[in-house]
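Honest question from a wet-lab person: if I give you the sequences of every part of a complex, can you actually get the arrangement of the whole thing, not just the pieces? Trying it with mine:
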Amino acid sequence: MMDALILDSVVLGYGDRPVVSDLSFSLAPGEIGCLLGGSGCGKTTVLRAIAGFEPLQGGRIALNGHWVADAQWRLAPERRQIGMVFQDYALFPHLTVANNVAFGLREWSRVDQSRRVAEMLSLVGLADVERRYPHELSGGQQQRVALARALAPGPTLLLMDEPFSNLDVELRERLSIDVHHILKATGTTGLLVTHNQQEAFAMADRVGVMLGGGMQQWASPYALYHEPATRHVATFVGDGVFLPAHVRGQNCIDFELGQLCRIQPVDVPDGAEVDVLIRPDDIQHDDASPVRAKVLERVFRGAAFLYTLELTSGDRVLSLVPSHHDHQIGEMIGIRLEIDHLVAFPKEAI
Amino acid sequence: MHSRGSIWHWRGWGPFRALVIAALTLVPLLVVLASFFDPQPEVWSHLATYVLPGVLWNTVVLIFGVGAGVLFLGVPLAWLTAVCDFPGRRFFAWSLMLPLAMPAYVLAFVQVGLLDFTGPVQTWLRDWLGTSNWFPPIRSTGGVVLVLTLAFYPYVYLLARNAFITQGLRAVEAAQALGYSRAQAFWKVALPMARPWIAGGMTLALMETLADFGSVSIFSFDTFTTAIYKAWFALFNLPAASQLASLLVMFVLVLAAVDQRLRQNRRYAAKNYSPVRIRLQGGARWGAILFCSVILAMAFVVPLIQLLVWVYSVWHEDFDGRYPVFLLHSIWLAGLAAVAVTVLGLLLSAIRHHHRDPLTQWIVRLATLGYAIPGTVLAVGVFIPIAWLDNQLLTLASWFGWETSQILKGSLLVMLLALSARFLAVAYQPIDAAMQRITRNQGNAARSLGLSPRQTLMRLQLPMVRGGLLTAALIVFVDVMKEMPITLMTRPFGWDTLAVRVFEMTSEGMWDRAALPSLAIVLAGLLPVILLVRKSESGLH
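Yes, you can. This is the full assembly:
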């Protein structure tokens, strides 16, 4: 089966100023992808290039097996059959909700149009507001209308630019799950751009972490968290700290908390100094453990405490501990290392 | 599909495109200014001896008199209706804008008719008290200043009220929390904060004062506009007219520069409108009601009643075969100008949004300078190049054996060009405001839903600016109907409109005969004021 979206060595920029360099990734039909990164990493520019609003300086883009843009040529946006949800929703203020949704259906018959509009609005759970105007709706409702409008013509690919960033946290979580289900139910391929990793994890099958116009890693959320390819991905995705260690033999690592063996081979030579990524869930609280650490800070998170602990060496680690273990600041507690995925990077001169 | 390389879409065209429209304003302006730098000694010596001393003095008196007048009416009225509370406040808040519907020249002749020695007020006073000799003469400098103040205070009122509503009471409360009394807070905080708005309103009022032709000629009060008109029609001395116009432009350009400067200082805070008001008690309450009532009565209600009385008395003889012709001419001219100017305004706004370079933006601002230039000046500035062009055309025509005395000069074209230059800014502002509400993403959304750029224009941009276009057309229509000097000076022979009729009747002192065309103008003038009232009241309650 051919890919729904392919970016092949895409280069983007304004004039002499490069924004995105040599970006490649692809999405299979029905898959949901996400570009994750801080502001200025070029993720929105990539989205606009796929939609056809930005010219390519190099590389090429294919939709459903057809090349739609390269450095010399680009297909006009209106001929790409792409749906787009904008950060500010870009609803048309002079049209009712129903007419907004029907905007892309102008070549359909009246009957088909109204059937489709009703279908789309019930899909996004807004069947009762079709006669209202955008300004009469709440932010979350406007977001759903924007989604319904983009999905109505049955696009092969739906692009979403920070679709939930104007909503409050609770609504954002609920909507991102809803939208995930809607895309899966309609079999729509989706590409989302966001700076919020919770959103990325909730929505996407594959996430690309971008930094400075380049792709650091393109993988499943699970892999991003547990097997980050770069230091940037390791720190950007999830909590965690680096602890110094050194490699012994083929598959053992020594560090303050003990020795770890029988893990996947580490791709660094014997005896090298490395930094090992320690996630809060890698540190287990264990009163029987001989290794002790001092509680420096504690953040109550309901089901768990997130403790910041100081080891005897002075290094600090985070630990997620079930909240019935209520320890005070300054207390010494026993900890044990439990790592399934060892992530180590060659030591960096800081 | 891909427009790269097409010369038509070259981004660098912006300044040229803007310049084509700006020429409408810039050519007359430069023509007039050129005569300032080409002084003709004999013309100047005549002007300097017989015309300028009086005209200059009168102009200075008007600037200071009307400037102070609009300040003393506009600011307190704005404060009372924006921040205080007293019985009738909501009524006064909108009704105090009504005088905008009444052209200054209508107010002028009605006030003269009312307050002159033979008018109803002094006659009544004599019947009652035996004498009215103590009554100040209305045909005086004070009278002109009074009438122009009553006509133009709404500019200050509108802008100051806007400033007070958005930031006034909140600022006063903040100052009170810091230990100021309410009166101190007004003088130390609220008033200084509103200064850019108040000064902006005053500049507009002064521009209108300098441009005014109708009222000062009713008072036989010589200013630049009347002097230009006399040089043009009584003396047929075009050089003198353009020399005078160039001097007037100097005054006006200073005001326009001040205005542009002030606009940049006006930063609107978010509309955090507070429903809490200062409740006036006792004497202050009655004082506020009395003040608002007197101003409203003098500037609008009494003049309107007097107009109706006159219309009633002359209705039968005046509504003859000629009146419909004046009306038709007015509507035809105003309609034509409204369409032309609205199209020009739309083009100018489209150019500004398509070409974002600073040079284009600057030229667009120059193009909208016409609102500051008095009609008399524009009439001169348009007529001179058209007359020159006409001579060239006549030479050309005679080669083809076509003998005629004028081609362009006597046509509606001259009038339309001058009117367009004057009212372009009026049309441009609502259109551009509507344009600015269309975001780039809305355009992109339409494209991604399958619409070509052309279809996007038809189905998104045009429907979204439609309101702005209608507002623009309406305001220009009414402004052209009210307009007097350009129509008077550039109309084709015998092409009389309502405003021309008013001028002719008032110049013979026949106030009652001027009432019927004036009433039509005032009624038309109410339309944009209603729009304005609705706009300024929406979201405030």
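Two things worth pointing out. The first strand of chain A starts at residue 5 and ends at 14. Chain A touches chain B at residues 48, 51-53, 55, 73-84, 86-88, 90-94, 103-104, 106, 149-150, 153, 159 (CB under 8 Å).
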